[in-house]
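Changelog note: in this version the structure field was regenerated for every chain. One regenerated record is shown below for reference.
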Amino acid sequence: MANNININANSGVERVVTLTQTDISVWLAVFHGLLAFFSPCVLPLIPGFIGIILFKEKRMQRLFGFFIGFSFMFALLGAISSTIGGFLLSFGDIIEKIIGISIVILGVAYIFELQIFKGKSVNIWKFKGTGFLGGLMLGAAIGFVWIPCSSPVLGSMLLIAAQKSIIKGMWLLFVYSLGISIPFLTIGTLLSKALSFGFGKPAWEKWTKIIGGSFIMLLGILILFGKMKV
C-alpha cells in the first residue's frame, strides 16, 4: 500500500514538473513574440500592412488567409529547428551548453540591434484586394519581412524549439506568431502611430532593447548552467 502511495505521489510530481516546463516554454514563446512585435524597423510599417489586409474587397477572406499564412510560416521554422535539434541533442549535454551560449550571444545582438538574418525587399502591395489565397501569401510575406528586424529574438526562440519534438516546436513557434499577430491586428495601427511620434530615436526603443536583450541573456545563462529546462 505504501509503495502504491509513493508511486502515485511520484507520478503526481512528474505531472507537475511536466506541466511547469510546458507553461514556461509557452510563456517564453509569448514573450518572444511580443518582443518581436516591437521591432523598431517594422513598427512604423504596421498601418500600411493593416491597410492592405483590411482593404474593403474580400476583407474577411484575406484576413483569414493572412492569419494562416503568417502562423504556418513560423510553425514551419519551428518544425525545421526541432528536426535539426533532435539530431544534435543526441550528442549529449554539450549541445545544451552550446544552445545556452548561443542564446546569450543573441541577447547581446538584440541589445546592439544586430541582424542575424538578412532580408530582401518584398512587394506586399500586390496583394491588396486579393482573396484567401492572396491573404495566405500576404501572411507569409509579412512574416518574411519581420524576420530580419527581430532575428535575434527569433533565433533565441528557434534554439528553444530545437530542444523539443517536432510537434512541440511547431506549437511553440505558432504561439510565438500569435504574440506578434494578435497585437498587430488589434492595436497595431494605434500603437505604431503613438510610439512613432516625435523626432529621433524614441526612449522606448532603447529600453525595449535593454530589457528584452537582458531577459534573453538571462535565459541563455540559466540554460547554460542547467538551471532551467525549457
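Spot check on this record: The CA atoms of residues 33 and 179 lie 4 Å apart. Residues 2-224 form one domain.
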